[in-house]
Design a protein that fits this description.
The chain has 614 residues and is α/β, with parallel strands linked by helices. The protein starts with 8 loop residues before the first strand and ends in a 21-residue tail after the last helix. The chain has 4 domains: 71 residues, no CATH class; 205 residues, no CATH class; 30 residues; 255 residues, P-loop containing nucleotide triphosphate hydrolases (Rossmann fold, 3-Layer(aba) Sandwich), CATH 3.40.50. The strands form 3 sheets. The protein has an 8-stranded mixed beta sheet. A two-stranded antiparallel ribbon has the order 1-2. β11, α18 and β12 form a beta-alpha-beta unit. Helices cover 52% and strands 9% of the residues.
Length: 614
């Protein structure tokens, strides 16, 4: 019911002095309640299962047992017919495109006949086509069987594959069909038993031994089957090669007509063969029967049920001790997000060179650092800038810093803008490149019109790099910060980035700038960042507090192990409420952490020109 709430309704129509109530509850909770009262036992080396159900109402217990047995029979019948349903689904998926191919071939053949004035073929050509039609029919059936045998081999040799990965199309050998049915039944029994038993259970071990023996026998049978198919295929290939000798002496137009006619015959024969196999699978599915039988119907057995005081007391003590531990474990398992720099460092060998707090008013001010402003975020950006210098290539004029992340929304564009301005305030000539061509955010944040020519125009050779520069004023930057906006969103960003004009951008940057900050798309979504990674002296991977999940860190580790980026380093961004004085009392944090005075978030400080040596 909606909201899984218990619905109680008084039944007024009952002729009784005692009121009646009915209620409905969630299916899952009902299933658990039934399973607690259900008991099943088996006798050793027997296929008989004794089922009992305990309930205050014997009539309800009998109804539940009858219902469970009926559901089991239906599930068993569905499992037995699963392979036929899979074959039908497989054939249906093949028939649609095959029908379109056949129509196209027939239309092309008709057009060819009309253009060449052909009405019919010579007697020899007709004889050739009849031979090839028969050979192609046999080869089509052989190829279907080879595909089916490969599917069966994968299924029996890989326990992780499900029955939905199995196909029986074309298998007509009674012995092989019987062995496959037996193997499927054993696999199904083991999978169901594994839900309630461990591998050490005697019944599980018996099934495992049977499966091993049957798997060995099936591999031998399939090996012989494949050898026979190879021999038959070789024979028909030789026959086809012999028949094709006729084509060498045929006129060119007739040769082309024969080739088109043969292609039509191949597709037509494959189409008809699949239709035949589908009909066979439908008949087989309709004839499936279950091999279970109820020996005795459920009967009422009177018994007195009462709880054991000692068991209840022991269970209460154990649960009381385990609950706090389980709560802590579950909370840790359910929380897949990164919440601390220490946790991030424990999951990777990539250095974490910066930890950035959540900047204030970042929605209203995309660039929050300034010449006469000092805040915790600004100091962290300056510390990051200092750490980047350790990765700089000695003797190289231009330092390239590539900034990316695994997914969108982790703050890479925001970091790119503020890091670029930090370098500009230091007196460096800085270029900020908006290479996130699919979802450009820097242009929007800096109010740069999307109609203005940008990197997209440069990469198609329409304009030169210097024609798209947007110079950022303010804070007495003195033409130190240039933005290269993305421009119009192209349909093929990756092809543009890897195109012939990208080298022109690189040459212009090398000749005119000290530092180049590149904002790229998330590397976990597209490959643009990897293409631009060849430029980078250092690659900053941005992660975010309570947003980046552990699986993304594993993906970053894989990229690091494959060395797809140069000098990878992590930035932990958007940190809030870290649990020490700095999280809520920022002014006091600066006094204790840095030891050089008291700073408010917007307080005036000496000019940043004094930091140019950092």
């Amino acid at each position: 019911m909606k909201g899984h709430k218990i619905i109680v309704e008084k039944l007024e129509e009952f002729n009784s002095q005692t009121p009646f109530f009915c209620y409905s509850r969630h299916t899952i909770s009902t299933a658990f309640a039934i399973s607690r009262k259900l008991s099943m036992t088996t006798t050793k080396e027997s296929n008989i299962i004794n089922i009992s159900y305990s309930d205050v109402s014997s009539e309800r217990a009998i109804d539940i047992l009858n219902g469970l047995i009926g559901i089991y029979d239906r599930d068993l019948e569905r499992d037995k017919s699963l392979s036929f349903s899979q074959a039908i689904n497989f054939i249906d998926k093949r028939l649609i495109p095959l029908g379109r191919e056949l129509d196209s071939i027939e239309n092309a053949l008709a057009s060819f006949r009309a253009s060449k004035g052909y009405v019919g073929l010579s007697a020899n050509s007709e004889m050739y086509l009849e031979k090839m039609k028969e050979y192609d029919k046999q080869l089509t059936e052989i190829n279907i069987l080879k595909s089916t045998v490969a599917s069966i081999e994968r299924f029996i040799n890989d326990p992780n594959l499900k029955e939905s990965d199995l196909s029986f199309v074309g298998v007509n050998d009674p012995y092989l069909q019987g062995v496959l049915r037996q193997y499927q039944d054993l696999r199904s029994q083991r999978d169901k038993l594994a839900l309630v038993q461990t591998d050490d259970n005697p019944n599980m071990q018996v099934l495992d031994r049977k499966l091993i023996e049957l798997r060995s026998s099936m591999n031998a049978v399939l090996g012989n089957y494949k050898n026979n198919l190879r021999i038959a295929e070789s024979t028909y290939q030789q026959n086809i090669a012999s028949a094709n000798a006729y084509l060498r002496g045929a006129p060119l137009d007739e040769k082309q007509l024969l080739e088109k006619s043969r292609l039509q015959n191949i597709k037509e024969q494959l189409y008809l063969t699949l239709l035949q196999k589908r009909e066979e699978a439908s008949i087989a599915r309709a004839s499936v029967t279950v091999n279970t039988k109820m020996l005795y119907p459920p009967v009422k057995v009177n018994a007195v049920l009462k709880p054991s005081r000692s068991i209840v007391l022991s269970a209460a003590i154990i649960i009381g001790l385990l609950l706090p531990v389980l709560f802590a474990i579950v909370r840790e398992l359910l929380n897949r997000k990164i919440i601390s720099k220490k946790q991030l460092q424990a999951m990777t060998n990539i250095p974490v060179i910066a930890e950035l707090e959540q900047a204030d008013n970042m929605d209203k001010r995309p660039i929050v650092i300034g010449r006469n402003k000092r805040s915790m975020f600004g100091e962290q950006i300056r510390s990051l800038r200092t750490n980047i210098n350790f990765y700089r290539t000695h003797g190289k004029k231009t330092n390239f810093v590539l900034i990316t992340s695994s997914v969108s929304g982790e703050g890479k564009s925001f970091l790119s803008m503020n890091l670029a301005k930090s370098y500009a305030l230091q007196g460096k000539k800085v270029a900020l490149l908006e290479f996130d061509l699919r979802r450009p955010k820097i242009s929007k944040a800096l109010d740069i019109s999307s109609e203005k020519a940008g990197l997209t125009s440069v990469l198609i050779g329409k304009v030169e790099p210097q024609d798209i520069v947007v110079r950022i004023a303010g804070d007495n930057l003195k033409d130190k910060l240039d933005v290269f906006p993305a421009g119009a969103i192209p349909p093929n960003p990756q092809e543009l980035i890897s195109g012939e004009f990208i080298g022109k951008v690189k040459q212009y940057l090398d000749a005119n700038y000290d530092v180049v900050v590149i904002d790229t798309p998330p590397f976990g979504i597209v490959a643009d960042a990897q293409i631009l990674g060849e430029w980078a002296d250092v690659t900053l991977i941005v992660t975010r507090f309570q947003q980046t999940i552990r699986d993304q860190i594993q993906e970053i580790n894989e990229w690091h192990n494959r060395k797809l980026f140069r000098n990878m380093a992590l930035v932990f961004n958007g940190v809030r409420d870290k649990g020490y004085f700095g999280s809520k009392y920022g002014n006091y944090y600066y006094k204790r952490k840095y030891g050089y005075g008291y700073y408010s978030s917007e307080g005036s400080v000496p000019s940043e020109d004094a930091e140019k040596k950092s």
